[in-house]
Amino acid sequence: MLSSSTNLLARAPRMMRAASSQPVSGLAAILQKNPEDVVITFAKRTAVGRAKKGQLKDAPVDEMMHALFKATLAKTKLDPTKIDDICVGTCHPPSPLYVSRAAALAAGIPHDVPISTVNRLCSSGLMAIRNIAHAIKAGETSIGLAVGVDSMSLNPRPTPEISEAVDKNSEAHDCIQPMGWTSEMVAETYSVSRQKQDEYALISHTRANKAVANGIFVNEILPIEIKGSVISVDDTIRPGVTIESLSSLKPAFPNWGPATTTAGNASGVGDGAALCILTTRARAQAEGMEIVGKWVGSAVVGVEPRHMGISPIYAIPKVLAQAGLSKEDIDIYEINEAFASQFAHCVEELQIPIEKINPNGGSIAISHPLGMTGVRQVVTGLAELKRRNGTLLCTSMCIGSGMGAAGIFVNEAHTNSRL
């Protein structure tokens, strides 16, 4: 069995490889406001569309980005000539850099603004934020855009191919297997029952439906126009989900492991995009930009590919130790719900109260456009902290092929009560 989260926190300082450059500093230092801080001045997402059936099923990633760039510039009044760099996290569209660059140019961003793309699968959006934040920290960028986008409708996961020589290695073989297989391996190895998975899934569905009823997502969604239609409401969240309806669903992968993963207790497949504007505190103040959050740092880990879903158990303690924080310091956790099997196991191993995790539901209910999720969780988490007048967000996700990532952010859309 895995060590307890307490032991993991104790071990985390020895796992500093692939961590952000932010040194261990502690809560008091993190809450200080310094001119060189990397801050977020805008954090919004599009509504999410159900793959193959929803409102964005015919919109390729360049069209979604084009619409999001235009809506962002209109909303913020940001002079696009002041943008120094753009990084786009996306997973499966062909020629992603070409289409991202084209979308930026078509939206009115000048040709002298460079752009890059990053693909670390489910963490790609968080990696885009990380790349821009690190460039700002290094003094190479002053204002940057971090984007996460994917169309699971038009660019579903391709089947990875490796050579026979590489495939002879058991871990190499495991790392290219379908993600549903890894869900079943986690369920089997860690005895996560179908009933437990459905119970955790019900929490996600129930919370997301409550959030919709209360208009909570309105504050984080930036309406975009696609082919003359305004997209502003998620069409992925299913009403009326009960434990009975979940338990009646057939296994999605009947030939693997215990066959406990279903369409109701796994992340939805969807389409969407999200965006953050990052700069230094000094530049934000000089430009009169509203500061909504502060970047603290991130961490990336690797785990056995067969059990890739357990990686937040390691990524979260690592980023907390790096920042000099305890898990109790965090007000909200946004932990990606790739599958209820891995999500349930992570929650229980980390021993974090479920009330703090995904308070408005997660990817099981909202859906998981791979490149979008890493930015969406930051957008959602910061919006919820603002509602609660809370302070700290920790976001984390497992990553296909056997990795995990986590990040820490400070809410600044209020007067910080901890200062």
TrEMBL record:
Residues 38-281 form the Thiolase N-terminal domain. GO terms for cellular component: peroxisome. Pathway: Lipid metabolism; fatty acid metabolism. GO terms for biological process: fatty acid beta-oxidation; phenylacetate catabolic process. InterPro entries: Thiolase (IPR002155), Thiolase-like (IPR016039), Thiolase-like_sf_Thiolase (IPR050215), Thiolase_acyl_enz_int_AS (IPR020615), Thiolase_C (IPR020617), Thiolase_N (IPR020616). The active site is at 122 (acyl-thioester intermediate), 368 (proton acceptor), 398 (proton acceptor). Residues 291-409 form the Thiolase C-terminal domain. GO terms for molecular function: acetyl-CoA C-acyltransferase activity. Keywords: Acyltransferase, Transferase. Transmembrane segments: none annotated. It catalyses: an acyl-CoA + acetyl-CoA = a 3-oxoacyl-CoA + CoA. Belongs to the thiolase-like superfamily. Thiolase family. NCBIfam families: AcCoA-C-Actrans. This is 3-ketoacyl-CoA thiolase. It comes from Collybia nuda.
